[in-house]
Amino acid sequence: MLNMGGPSTVPEVGPFLNRLFSDGDIVSLGPLQSWLGPLLAKRRTPKIEEQYAQIGGSPIRKWTELQGREMVKRLDKLSPETAPHKFYVCFRYADPLTSDCLAAMTADGVTRAVAFSQYPQYSCTTTGSSLNHLWRELLRRGQEKAFSWSVLDRWAEHPTFIAAVQRRIELGLAEFAPEERDKVIILFSAHSLPMKVVNRGDSYPQEVGATVAAVMRALQTANPAAGTPARPNKYILAWQSQVGPLPWLGPQTGEVLSGLGAQGHQHVLVVPIAFTSDHVETLFEIDIEYAHVAKEAGIAHFRRAPSLNDEPLLADAMAQLLAKHLKDGEVCSRQYPLNCAGCTNPLCRSIVNPIKPYAKLRDQAKPDGPMAKEDPTNQVGLRA
User: Can 60-155+314-383 and 159-304 be said to share one CATH topology?
Assistant: First the structure.
């Protein structure tokens, strides 16, 4: 279960930020990455420590482990021919790190593995970074052949995932008085991206948009079996967590809240749409910072839909995704082999020791080109 992770305690913030700012896939600092990354991390640590202190540390590991337990219970029933199943938490920047995950898998004698992204919408900065680091760690440990891999890299429009988000929105709308619910503006908020990543061709913005569109179709359709009416609410998609002075994907969530307040809107429900559990972006940024922005903007009724956390439909969705993935013998999604149009990273879209023959489309298109010097396990490209 691949995810960014988060510091569970305040002393873990410094190491977390150091790993994050040293990752060129998410914070690209060029040839000075190894020097600038730790410097930026050190400068930001005191401020971020204050944020984590206010929320009592990140609960993302707790929720990921709970989701994993519920997922494999369901998967054992859905796919008994591949049971028993076991989940491993594999965080990019916090414990348990990728190396810890691989060590545990080795100790357990695992030979077949699915790299399952916990980001429903694909981005090179999230899913891509986690996968790239997974392949690097396999090579560093000399375990290129230790596991046979497939990749479950995106699930932005899975029907049960959409139903899970819909249910959490219904819970959020229930926090408003019955006569107010139709007036509520639904503000979907997703982590932003630097525009240079977007302009390179990252698919994240359109995949988040696809999730939002699917959720709104579900909300606007009455479901008597679930006891939910057709919702007439208006909605907007905004982006949060911008860092630094360079252009980022917008509009920013705080700016949208200020604008809605200026227009006289009094009822807003924020929906964290690209997160599968609570963490600092929901517990601090939305619940504390954006709640203050909304109050200053004159929005009298501001709420956040509860995160997916322990939502049973989320565990259902994950198990369904995996059951189909295993039954169909998928090595990855149809989109995964397609690099971003502006990608020059030889590592991106690799799979070490895939369960069936696999090649990136750019290597097939230019078999003699500079990116095509990889053997069937991608080892040459990975070491580059």
Answer: yes
Which residue in this structure is represented by tokens 């990608």? 343
**Whole-prediction pTM:** 0.92
Query: Phi-psi category of 360—alpha, beta or left, where left has phi over 0 and alpha has psi -120 to 50?
Result: beta
What CA–CA distances, in Å, run from 352 to 3, 132, 154, 358?
19, 10, 18, 10
Burial of 157 (0-12, 13-18, 19+ CB in 10 A): middle
Residue-wise burial string across 280-319, b where 16 or more C-beta atoms lie within 10 A, e elsewhere: bbbbbbbbeebbebbeebebebbbbbbbbbebebbbbbbb
> Digits of tens for pLDDT over the chain (384 positions)?
999 898 889 898 888 788 887 776 666 667 777 767 788 878 888 988 898 899 899 999 999 999 999 999 999 999 999 999 999 999 999 999 999 999 999 999 999 999 999 999 999 999 999 999 999 999 999 999 999 999 999 999 999 999 999 999 999 999 999 999 999 999 999 999 999 999 999 999 999 999 999 999 999 998 888 788 899 999 999 999 988 778 999 999 999 999 999 999 999 999 999 989 999 999 999 999 999 999 999 999 999 999 999 999 999 999 999 999 999 999 999 999 999 999 988 999 999 999 999 999 988 766 555 444 444 444 434 443
Q: Any bridge partners for residue 152, and if so which?
A: 116
Please give the C-alpha separations between residue 171 and each of 36, 210, 274, 292, 306, in angstroms, as whole numbers.
Answer: 43, 22, 18, 22, 7
Q: How far is CA 384 from the centre of its chain?
A: 27
The domain limits of the chain are: 60-155+314-383, 159-304
**Peptide bond before residue 251 is cis, with ω within 30 degrees of 0:** yes
Q: Which helix (H) or strand (E) holds 78?
A: helix 60-78
What is the Cα–Cα distance from 361 to 340, expressed in whole angstroms?
A: 11
Cβ count near 39 (within 10 Å): 13
CATH code of 159-304, in short, is 3.40.50.1400
Contacts of 199 (CB under 8 A, 6+ apart): 342
Is CATH 3.40.50.12280 the right assignment for the domain spanning 60-155+314-383? no
